[in-house]
Structure formats: structure tokens, C-alpha cells
Design a protein that fits this description.
Order of helices and strands: HEEEHEHHHHHHH
Structural class: alpha+beta
Number of helices: 9
Helix content: 55-70%
Shape: globular
Number of strands: 4
Length: about 200
């Protein structure tokens, strides 16, 4: 128990001042966005607070790091088609599901990154896109992520869980309102699957 407690480490606190300077409270020194990017790559978690208001601005700082990385030549990870699709999702009925899907996909990719690197290396061998093998590998991974996400959502979403708990052979049909809610969720998942499949096929 003590070993587990000792291994848990609180995120590093970064303070952002009005002059836009970032202060690392752990090292008592000012840092840059590039320094913070290095911390992320090194696996060190941090949170960023506005020094004046105390507001947690970690999300905006991480977004700024991504923006800076995307601005560098040869550093692009987000294709224009993906950026446009993400913008379209804002305010869309699918917006609530997108963050969970992206988080689920990235966690899965992180867990299997060594296998995926090997697969991508073989796919790219022999040409810029390995005769289409690289895109096939990406699409296969996307479809696998979508399948796992759909199954996880089915098991853990509150409507499905409630329906499973109450489902008995002698039970009467579910109320129309509950059926409508489940129908809406199924339609949203279907729409998201179609959009993600189209996104994966876009070159």
C-alpha cells in the first residue's frame, strides 16, 4: 500500500502570468511551451493555472502546444480533412460522443503502439504509402477502435445498463420513452460510425 502511495505523483503545477510567462513551481523557474511539450513527451503530467484568477487553463495551453507543433514543417499530425471534420462536430449532436471516442482510440493506440509501429513500418516499406498498405492499416485500426468503442458504449451507457438490469422474459415491453432514448443513441452511434468510416477513407 505504501509503495502504491509512493508511486503516485501529483501533477506538476505551472502558473501562467499576465505577461504570458509560464512558471514551473517544481523547479522555481520560467519555462516555455517547448519545455512543456518536452514534459509531455517524457510522461510528466502537469496542470496550468492562471496566476491571477486560479482558473485551470491546462486545456488551452495543451491546445497551444499542438498548434505550435502543427505550425512546424514536417510536424503535422492532423490532416486538414480531420481539422475540418472536428470543427463540424462542434455544436453537432455527435459532439458529446466525439471526446470519448478520441480518448478511447488514443488509449488503445498507446497500449498497442509498439505493435502498431511495426505494422506501419511494414506497410510503408517499398514506397511512400507501401502500395496502399499504410492506409489499409490505418483504416483497419480505425474500424477496430470503432468496434471496441461501440461495444464499450453498449456495456456502459446508462440506458443499456438499466434495460439489461430490468430485462426478464415475463417483463412487459419497455415504455415508449425509453425505447425512443435507446433509438436516439443507436442512431447517433450509427451516424458517428458512418462519419468516421468516411474520415478514415479520406486520403
Amino acid at each position: 500500500m505504501q509503495d502504491m502511495m509512493a508511486s503516485e505523483k501529483e501533477p506538476t503545477v505551472i502558473k501562467k502570468y499576465a505577461n504570458r510567462r509560464l512558471y514551473h513551481t517544481g523547479t522555481s523557474s520560467y519555462v516555455t511551451l517547448e519545455d512543456l511539450a518536452g514534459l509531455v513527451r517524457g510522461g510528466e503530467d502537469f496542470v496550468v493555472y492562471d496566476a491571477k484568477s486560479g482558473e485551470d487553463i491546462t486545456r488551452s495551453v495543451l491546445a497551444q502546444i499542438i498548434f505550435d507543433e502543427e505550425s512546424k514543417d514536417g510536424q503535422n499530425l492532423l490532416p486538414i480533412t480531420v481539422l475540418r471534420q472536428l470543427i463540424r462536430f462542434y455544436g453537432d449532436s455527435m459532439q458529446a460522443l466525439v471526446p470519448r471516442y478520441l480518448e478511447f482510440s488514443m488509449e488503445n493506440l498507446t497500449k498497442e503502439q509498439n505493435q502498431f509501429r511495426e505494422m506501419m513500418g511494414k506497410a510503408f516499406t517499398g514506397g511512400a504509402f507501401g502500395g496502399g498498405g499504410a492506409m489499409d492499416a490505418i483504416q483497419a485500426q480505425t474500424r477496430a477502435n470503432m468496434a471496441m468503442f461501440t461495444e464499450a458504449f453498449r456495456l456502459f451507457n446508462p440506458f443499456a445498463a438499466a434495460a439489461a438490469a430490468k430485462a426478464k422474459p415475463e417483463d412487459p415491453p419497455a415504455p415508449a420513452a425509453k425505447s425512443d432514448e435507446l433509438g436516439d443513441l443507436k442512431r447517433e452511434l450509427s451516424e458517428m460510425r458512418e462519419r468516421l468510416d468516411k474520415l478514415a477513407k479520406t486520403k
